[in-house]
Specification:
The complex is a heterodimer of chains A (311) and B (234). Helix content of chain A is 38%, strand content 28%. Chain A has 311 residues and is an alpha/beta fold. The chains are: A alpha/beta (311), B mainly alpha (234).
Chain lengths: 311, 234
């Protein structure tokens, strides 16, 4: 659906994107992850045609943004980092304006109603945008991106500044969109991306440093050779017992509430053995998870590596 | 283009801008009308028209100052530039919006003509010809000021520069007369913006004058499109 090839962008001397390539399949929800200033917004701005790349091409559903800008833009709904809202318009007037601007060929009133219902704005049509709170503005921006049911939806940090309740709602919305649309959304919050996306691309310093299915990434972590345990009982006994398990290399206390970290040979699954060992000494396991701080840690490792590589 | 034009119009009329501009234009043109026509017992609107540039100079920068500067500052240009509309359509939509408000300002001269007709026979051909002239001057000034607005992110800067340019245009004739080199002043005289307006006030419709203002308009609309395009590449 979306094909990005060898994208490079320079702002003067600054190299914002360095030879980025990836493809997104129809119906896929792609998470774009990276620290601030990694090139997430730049990539999205290039895909949507807001800015042009220094070199490289973007093809959306067979049409190229530079060769056929109108056709390509019609296929994309875009929510930029800062929703492009006119403060002096009411929610409904604004959405009707965007409807006309995008040359949507659907029954206008019905479609605007439908989109407003989808993002939970149905009661706020008559309010001026300048009087809306940040969360509601974000929803208006979201609604604007959905107008015309574009096959591709691109969302730049859609959950920033929202309260937890709203974040959950927006995530649900993104998930439901993934059924009919191809979605790319960016965030620097990892848990958010792993909860909503089929696939994750991690970008740092203008380069892609990881591109994998979400579950694959978790599997990679499971083989990283670390288990995090919380047990109820004597930590000394538990440590001694754990060290007896074949394959376990090191056991460390990581907290005061019975948290232990178990390092083992990569590739070996010691979880069953850990369970029976703890059962034997009557030391119930309250929590067990793989791979340190899960994705968060991998993310930090990867971005640190990318930075090290650059320096 | 239609959507942008509609949004511009609602922007003007939902805020105070359109009303303030209309009120200022009507007030000062009315004042000139009173002074030159009633006070001096004249049925000719020529002197009124001759002085209108002083008002145009101030109101057009106010009309156009927001067009692109504010879009850029609020990042709403992202919505325009990622929508399936071309740059020329965006510029033309904004241009037409400003032009319509300006045309509404100038329409007051038709009222003055009618007022005169109560006392004397107004020279309708001269009035209509001058009205066309003042519309053309305005059109060119709108294009110049939209271009200025596209260069900055601050609408205040856009307005101040626009007014400075207006003042420069107004004093151009005087400045050119100070140039000591004959051929240079002759060339500059050809560029003297307001020279091409004088004929209209006499009721003379010359294709050269019309073409001059339309060329300036076309040129600055083209420049504005180029500025927007360049921004994408930088």
């Amino acid at each position: 659906m979306i094909e990005v090839k060898n994208l490079t962008k320079r702002y003067g001397k600054l190299l914002a994107l360095d030879d980025v390539s990836f493809t997104v399949d129809t119906g896929e929800v792609l998470g774009f992850l990276g620290p601030n200033g990694a090139g997430k917004s730049t990539t999205m701005n290039i895909i949507t045609g807001y800015i042009s790349s220094t070199s490289g091409t973007v093809t959306v559903d067979g049409s190229e943004i530079l060769a056929q800008p109108k056709q390509t833009k019609q296929k994309i709904g875009y929510l930029p980092e800062l929703p492009p809202l006119y403060a002096d318009m009411t929610v409904r007037k604004y959405l009707e304006f965007m409807f006309d601007l995008k040359r949507v060929r659907l029954p206008k009133q019905a479609h605007v109603d439908e989109v407003m219902r989808l993002v939970g704005l149905e009661k706020h049509g008559k309010r001026l945008i300048k009087n809306l709170s940040k969360g509601y503005r974000q929803r208006v921006g979201f609604a604007q991106a959905l107008l015309g049911n574009p096959p591709v939806i691109i969302l730049d940090e859609p959950t920033v500044g929202l309260d937890p309740q709203q974040i959950i709602e927006i995530r649900k919305l993104i998930k439901s969109l993934g059924k009919k649309h191809t979605v790319i959304f960016s965030s620097h919050v990892l848990s958010e991306i792993s909860a909503t996306c089929d696939r994750i691309i991690i970008i740092a310093g203008g380069k892609i440093i990881a591109d994998a299915k979400t579950d694959e990434l978790s599997q990679v972590l499971a083989q990283e050779g670390q288990l995090l345990l919380t047990v109820d009982g004597s930590l000394a006994d538990a440590t001694a017992e754990l060290q007896k398990i074949p394959g376990v290399l090191k056991v460390k206390r990581t907290g005061t509430q019975g948290q232990l970290s178990v390092e083992f040979k990569p590739g070996e699954d010691v979880r069953r053995a850990v369970f029976s060992a703890m059962a034997r000494i009557d030391c119930p396991i309250l929590e067990m998870k793989a791979g340190g701080d899960s994705l968060e840690e991998l993310y930090l490792k990867l971005t640190a590596k990318a930075k090290g590589g650059k320096a | 283009m239609g959507a942008i034009f509609k949004r511009e119009m609602s922007g003007y009329f939902n805020s105070a801008i359109a009303y303030v501009v209309l009120a200022v234009y009507y007030f000062f043109s009315g004042m000139f009308f009173y002074l030159y026509c009633f006070y001096n017992n004249s049925a000719s609107l020529s002197y009124v028209f001759a002085n209108m540039f002083y008002i145009i100079m101030f109101i057009i920068p106010v009309l156009t100052m927001k067009t692109f500067s504010e879009e850029k500052r609020q990042k709403t240009d992202q919505a325009l530039l990622t929508s399936p509309v071309s740059l020329i359509e965006i510029v033309m939509g904004k241009f037409l919006g400003a032009f319509c408000v300006y045309a509404l300002c100038c329409a007051i001269f038709l009222v003055y003509g009618v007022v005169i007709s109560f006392f004397a026979q107004p020279q309708w051909t001269v009035i209509l010809c001058t009205l066309l002239g003042i519309l053309l001057v305005g059109v060119a000034m709108i294009a110049i000021n939209i271009f200025i607005s596209s260069l900055t992110e601050s609408m205040v800067v856009a307005a101040v520069i626009g007014m400075a340019v207006g003042l420069f245009i107004d004093t151009m004739g005087y400045l050119i007369s100070l140039v000591p080199v004959d051929w240079l002043s002759a060339v500059l005289e050809k560029l003297n913006f307001l020279n091409y307006y004088t004929n209209f006030t006499y009721g003379i419709l010359s294709i050269v004058d019309v073409m001059f203002y339309l060329s300036v308009t076309g040129l600055f609309i083209f420049f504005t499109v180029r500025v927007l395009e360049r921004r994408r590449w930088s």
